[in-house]
Design goal:
Layout: H1 11-25, H2 43-60, H3 65-71, E1 73-76, H4 79-85, E2 89-92, E3 97-100, H5 107-116, E4 118-121, E5 125-128, E6 131-134, E7 137-139, H6 141-156, H7 163-176, H8 178-186, H9 190-199, H10 203-213, H11 224-250, H12 256-272, H13 278-286, H14 299-306
Parallel strand pairs: 1-3
Antiparallel strand pairs: 2-3, 4-5, 5-6, 6-7
The chain binds zinc ion.
Zinc ion binds near residues 114, 145 and 148.
């Protein structure tokens, strides 16, 4: 596989991320992240909460949902805070508390996804969805924001704030499968995701892929550095999918006609999914840094360059 791109990745941060993943792998089943001083939720929030649970509990399967529900607190966010941070709400993982500005807007759904996908182990390790933090390091933050946005968009038509990250998360989900990826998110199965990526690239690339996403500039803005990141991680995902198809093909699970169909399907999704916002899409395509990565998704490319490669068996 080609390299993901040339980035100055701090080797210490890389090592720390790997140690964090390793420690996480040895924690055993995760228990619910709860707040012992749980308060009653105000009625104002209950409609949002019921709507959230009705639409998501049977598809995302949050770990320890009942305990998290009992202990979740929601508070009003001071106006000044909202102005300074430029957000309408946020989730505080250490207190298992959501703060929102009033009147409550749909932005609360994004925060509810964070709250119900959170976990904490002995105060030393915590995280949410695909994000993991412990004293050794952290990994998966921006993938988690992108996927959280994607879920809030899917189930509650929320607007997308993390456009670049959601875009990459959506491409990844296409490969992993929607149901499997949602379940991985709800059960904090970052390890499963890394394993999937590793099977068709390498563990090293899987970790670097997650770390490179964390180099995106602050959400809602885009700069040439971001375009390069989008190109490089998209290229990584295309290579990953080609390796996956090659494996299926060499194992005799699919023939060349099915393979061609899959390439076409992926290509159409890949183009459609490039951006969630027309503004971002036109900015990206007009940039001198733009690369059309989808030209690799053709039968000709596969037959010329892939067929003779050794395949990666998961
Ligand atoms: Zn968020």
């Amino acid at each position: 596989m080609e390299s993901i791109g040339e980035y100055k990745l701090d080797s210490r941060l890389y090592e720390n991320a790997v140690v964090a993943l390793d420690n996480f792998a040895n924690t055993g089943p995760l228990s619910a992240h709860t707040n012992e001083q749980a308060g009653n939720l105000n009625d104002v929030f209950n409609d949002f909460l019921c709507n959230f649970l009705n639409k998501t509990r049977d598809v995302v399967y949050f770990n320890g949902l009942d305990e998290k529900l009992k202990s979740l607190r929601i508070k009003k966010m001071p106006l000044l805070f909202s102005i300074l941070l430029g957000v309408q709400g946020y989730y505080n993982i250490s207190t298992h508390e959501i703060k929102v500005s009033l009147p409550i807007s749909d932005c609360i759904y994004h925060e509810l996804f964070h709250a119900f996908s959170s976990f904490k182990v002995d105060g030393e390790m915590y995280g949410s969805g695909f994000w993991l933090y412990n004293k050794h390091g952290d990994i998966g933050l921006m993938l988690n924001e992108g996927y959280t946005d994607l879920l809030a968009f899917r189930y509650f038509c929320n607007s997308i704030s993390y456009g670049k990250e959601a875009n990459i998360a959506q491409k990844l989900e296409f490969m992993v499968g929607k149901q499997r990826m949602e379940e991985m998110y709800g059960s904090n199965n970052l390890l499963g995701l890394v394993q999937f990526l590793s099977s068709y690239s390498s563990f090293d690339y899987a970790v670097k892929f997650l770390m490179i996403l964390d180099k995106f500039s602050v959400h809602k803005s885009i700069c040439p550095k971001d375009i390069k990141i989008i190109n490089d991680v998209s290229n990584y995902l295309v290579e990953l999918y080609l390796n996956y198809l090659l494996t299926e093909y060499k194992l005799g699970k699919i023939d060349i006609s099915v393979l061609t169909e899959r390439l076409e399907e992926f290509k159409s999704h890949f183009s459609d999914y490039i951006f969630n916002s027309d503004w971002l899409k036109s900015y990206y395509e007009c940039s001198s840094e733009y690369e059309d990565i989808t030209n690799k998704l053709s039968k000709d490319y596969f037959q010329k360059t892939m067929k003779n490669r050794p395949y990666m068996h998961s």
